[in-house]
């Protein structure tokens, strides 16, 4: 995505609790003379802030023009990841665009292939087995979190349906009482005018 030099961009990630999140990013600055983005942006850095669903700041750190940040969620819900360059130029002058390459991986424990290749076959199988077990645990956490969200959604839907039913009953009673009142008023009017 593209942002201005002092502009902040926030991304919302819906995460279950106890989940590892790893983000890799790279900044490229627009070059006016070449009319293209430079491969790197020396002198620029990225200020990364992560907030929990309750508004608590989980991570707030300044990184270089290219780097990796990671955090573990301890609450389930929408976590807000905000990125902002540390440009020291004034906003009026900072017309330069930045291109941010961002890769966010949720719940992955990376398997180091080079370490696996150097060990013998038994250790390779055990490392891969541990990696698979971690992935299964992550999938299980995801499913539990989705069940929890589905239960909240179902409760909200049932409450809404109940409120709609009562509102329909109240509307029907009001319409019936207004209709009866109109009939009585018209009958009294016709009797008073001696039309009936």
Automatic annotation (TrEMBL):
Pfam family, one: EMP24_GP25L
PROSITE patterns: GOLD (PS50866)
Subcellular localization(s) per the UniProt record: Endoplasmic reticulum membrane; Membrane
Keyword terms, alphabetized: Endoplasmic reticulum, Membrane, Signal, Transmembrane, Transmembrane helix
Record domain GOLD: where: 8-106
Topological category with respect to the lipid bilayer: Single-pass type I membrane protein
UniProt GO cellular component terms: endoplasmic reticulum membrane
Family: Belongs to the EMP24/GP25L family.
Entry-linked PANTHER family: TRANSMEMBRANE EMP24 DOMAIN-CONTAINING PROTEIN
Protein name: TMD11 protein
Gene: Tmed11
């Amino acid at each position: 995505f593209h942002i201005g030099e002092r502009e902040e961009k926030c991304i919302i990630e819906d995460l279950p609790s106890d989940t590892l999140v790893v983000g890799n990013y790279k900044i490229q600055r627009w070059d006016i003379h070449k009319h293209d983005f430079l491969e790197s942006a020396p002198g620029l850095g990225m200020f990364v802030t992560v907030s929990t669903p309750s508004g608590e700041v989980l991570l707030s750190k300044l990184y270089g023009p290219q780097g990796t940040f990671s955090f573990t969620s301890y609450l389930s819900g929408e976590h807000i990841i905000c990125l902002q360059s540390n440009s020291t130029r004034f906003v009026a002058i900072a017309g330069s665009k930045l291109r941010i390459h961002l890769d966010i991986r949720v719940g992955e424990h990376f398997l180091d292939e080079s370490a696996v290749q150097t060990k013998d076959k038994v250790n390779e199988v055990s490392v891969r087995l541990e990696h698979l077990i971690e992935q299964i645990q992550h999938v299980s956490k995801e499913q539990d979190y989705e069940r929890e969200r589905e239960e909240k959604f179902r409760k909200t839907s049932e409450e809404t349906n109940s409120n709609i039913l009562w509102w329909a009953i109240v509307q029907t009673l009001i319409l019936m009482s207004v209709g009866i009142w109109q009939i009585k008023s018209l009958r009294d009017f016709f009797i008073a005018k001696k039309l009936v």
